[in-house]
Amino acid sequence: MDFEPSEDQRLLVESVTRMLGDTYGFAQRKSYMGQAEGYAPAIWSQFAELGLLGLPFAEEYGGFGGGAQEVMLVMQAFGRALVLEPFLSTVVLAGTAVNRAGSAQQKQAILPAIAEGRLKMAFAHGERQARYDLNDVVTTAKRDGSGWVLDGSKTVVSHGEAADKLIVSARTGGDRHDEDGITLFLVDAQAPGVARRGYLSRDDTRAADIALSNVSVPDADVLGEVGHGLPIVRRVVEAGIAATAGETVGAMEAMNEMTLEYSKTRVQFGQPIGSYQVVQHRLADMFMTQEQGRSMAMLATMSVDNPDDAARTHDIALAKVGIGQAGRYVSQSAVQMHGGIGMTEEYAVGHYFRRCMVIERLFGDPAYYLAKLAAEVR
Amino acid sequence: MDLRFTPEELAFREEVRAFIRDNLPADTRERMKLGHPPRKEDTVRWQRILNAKGWAALSWPKEWGGPGWTAIQRMIFLEENLMAPAPELLSFNITMLGPVLLQFGTDEQKQRFLPRAANLDDWWCQGFSEPGAGSDLASLKTAAKLDGDHYVVNGSKIWTSTAHNADWCFLLVRTDPNARKRQEGISFLLVDMKTPGITVRPIISIDASHHLNEVFFDDVRVPVSMRVHAENKGWDVAKFLLGNERTGIARLGKSQERVRAAVDMAREVNFNGAPLIQDQTFRQRVAQLQVDMKALEITQYRVVSAYDKAKGAGKPDPLSSVLKVKGTELLQATTELAVDVAGPMATPIWAQELAAMNEPDEMLEASSAGTASYLMLRAASIYGGTNEIQKNILTKAVLGL
Ligand SMILES: Cc1cc2nc3c(=O)[nH]c(=O)nc-3n(C[C@H](O)[C@H](O)[C@H](O)COP(=O)(O)OP(=O)(O)OC[C@H]3O[C@@H](n4cnc5c(N)ncnc54)[C@H](O)[C@@H]3O)c2cc1C
């Protein structure tokens, strides 16, 4: 075992941290939220220049040749800064789908464009009735000449409004809950019949509901094999879980630092509140939870490429539960230890709190994965 | 000992329930059923309806418009009102100001303010906390200097809930900066919010609502006749008020209502291919909340019936800290349950926009409102004396440590 980042990884973290330090203060972030896209296109370009947008892609596709570890480290830095840009949806989710399922032509068309910051994508899989069940898809794709016609609706698609291209799952066969019969399609966000309605989510990022009516997609834009999209969806979701686990670690670090600092400076009854043992113990619990959470983020990261399906799914589920619970505890505690100021929009802690709340229920919540783990107990 | 309600109490509960059913305005009911907080006009209208019935000034004596109920009856009423769900009586008026004036106020103050407070003709707010004085309230600095028959108030308050709606504020000020003990230099004033020199600045909270404010006082002149109790004796008034505040703060009916809303939604949403309501873990979580709510319910009745028997003692029960801590833990656990049930629907904040586009989506609206309620109630363990402070009080006052 080796838990130390390599020299290259250290340099990567340093450059990302430096860039965010210069550009992503809390007040600056607020101005990005106010931009039409809900984030800063200029920052997106800087991510491209730093090579972050091609981070996990092979060099032949304009990538950096990194892997899950690099993604985790970058997401950790993003978590600390509460980055709003569509990195998760574009690079991690769509990137994983294309990387794993795309033809050489599709990869060539998409990955370099992502890496250069020219293409933003969103992963449009979730449907209202499905809640967290990945196999629950009722959007349909029907054969039409040499192509397909899509009908249905997708919900809470992260950055769905800003995306240029969507990856849409639809049923080409089977019934609502069937594992087989789900197919992934690359859909131009501007295609006739695609109606997107964007809105603000509790974590200050934008999401969208997407209605598809009679959307034509050529055969060439089928991603992966017809009817066998679900295994890809699962890998995409696992990559998302690993990435957001890293992000949660960054958010927890930031909250713990802020809370520790606050406990030293906030004076009540003539003493810093950090001198009260109940506050000290809470800070100790928050620290322990952060470190347990970090371990779980590492587990998710080291598992995400494990070819053994059963082992990988199991480990990812463990990590998802652990990191979700950790984020919840640390963020609730951070608000509590700040008192009234922690409850305000003007102060950063509440924004970390809400980001953790949203991450906790992205791709399924702890209860959902606990149930999966419980079903495996023998 | 008998844990059963008497037939009279049961009949009373029926009467309350029926009255609320028949008189709560439909638009208020609909908003609140979806989990939204009441608007100002909902609260005002409902309190006036209750007051017309004689049910608003809950703990006040009959001569001041009180219903003459026992503490048990009051608890039953509060529970039914929250479970309806209906707007709560404005606690600043009913549980804070009213009892304070009854205990410490002059006849003139009582005559002038009590009937209007009961009928919500005046909306009151609580100007206690300051940037430097939260848990350590006695360190407050807002100063009042005597100038003829007026006090001149300078300083600022923070976290003043609904100050932007308020007509009047009850305010803690420092009248003697040189007092031997900090608690001895404080006075309790009634301030008209329209007085020149008062500025209210909104603070938006993490649920995206405007509930909190900062209030600035710049040479604000307050007649000496607006002081409650003796000069420099305001701390006694504040302690009395905070004890009363804590009893009402458990809001058990709200927790019960949240669990019911969560269970209703759990019938509609999917979990592993079946309705969530069928999931054993979910059911156990609800069952655990029922256990905790029942314990709190009985503890609450124990505290209030002891309060009834010790009538007139005027001393807050240290057990009120138990109600505060356990009640707010439950408020947080039950709103958290509602958010967990809503799942992915808990994250968008666009339900209102949807409704405005004339595409109402009740499930989404209820989810969004449920999240707002969860976020706001993170404050339940902070306001009214943080739960850490409540436990400090318990260890000293009850355990004698
Ligand atoms: C939503 C909301 C509504 C409010 N409404 C009003 C209102 O209408 N009017 C009004 O006057 N005030 C109001 N308040 C203010 C509220 O009473 C204070 O927030 C509260 O007293 C805590 O003070 P603080 O925020 O300054 O936190 P602090 O006192 O600074 O506390 C910070 C943390 O330190 C802990 N702590 C402090 N001292 C100790 C100790 N001795 N031992 C152990 N732990 C300690 C606290 O528990 C807390 O976790 C409201 C607050 C909120 C959040």
UniProtKB/TrEMBL annotation, chain A:
Which keywords does this Swiss-Prot/TrEMBL entry list? FAD, Flavoprotein, Oxidoreductase
Named cofactor requirement(s): FAD
Pfam assignment, any one: Acyl-CoA_dh_1
Q: Does the keyword Zinc apply?
A: no
Which intervals hold domain Acyl-CoA dehydrogenase/oxidase C-terminal?
227-365
List, for all copies, the residue spans of the domain called Acyl-CoA dehydrogenase/oxidase N-terminal: 6-117
Coiled-coil ranges per UniProt: none
- Every Acyl-CoA oxidase/dehydrogenase middle domain range: 122-213
GO MF annotations in UniProt: acyl-CoA dehydrogenase activity; flavin adenine dinucleotide binding
Protein name in UniProt: Pimeloyl-CoA dehydrogenase small subunit
Q: Which family does it belong to?
A: Belongs to the acyl-CoA dehydrogenase family.
From TrEMBL, chain B:
- Per the record, the domain of life is Bacteria
Going by the UniProt record, its keywords in alphabetical order are: FAD, Flavoprotein, Oxidoreductase
Keyword RNA-binding on entry: no
Entry-linked InterPro entries: Acyl-CoA_Oxase/DH_mid-dom, Acyl-CoA_Oxase/DH_mid-dom_sf, AcylCo_DH-like_C, AcylCo_DH/oxidase_C, AcylCoA_DH/ox_N, AcylCoA_DH/ox_N_sf, AcylCoA_DH/oxidase_NM_dom_sf, Mycobact_Acyl-CoA_DH
Q: Which GO terms describe its cellular component?
A: plasma membrane
Q: Which residues form the Acyl-CoA dehydrogenase/oxidase C-terminal domain?
A: 232-398
Q: Which cofactors must be present for this protein to function?
A: FAD
What range(s) does the Acyl-CoA oxidase/dehydrogenase middle domain occupy?
A: 125-220
Query: Which intervals hold domain Acyl-CoA dehydrogenase/oxidase N-terminal?
Result: 6-119
What GO molecular function annotations does the UniProt record carry, in alphabetical order?
A: flavin adenine dinucleotide binding; oxidoreductase activity, acting on the CH-CH group of donors
The record's similarity note reads: Belongs to the acyl-CoA dehydrogenase family.
Q: What is this protein called?
A: Pimeloyl-CoA dehydrogenase large subunit
Organism, scientific name:
Rhodopila globiformis
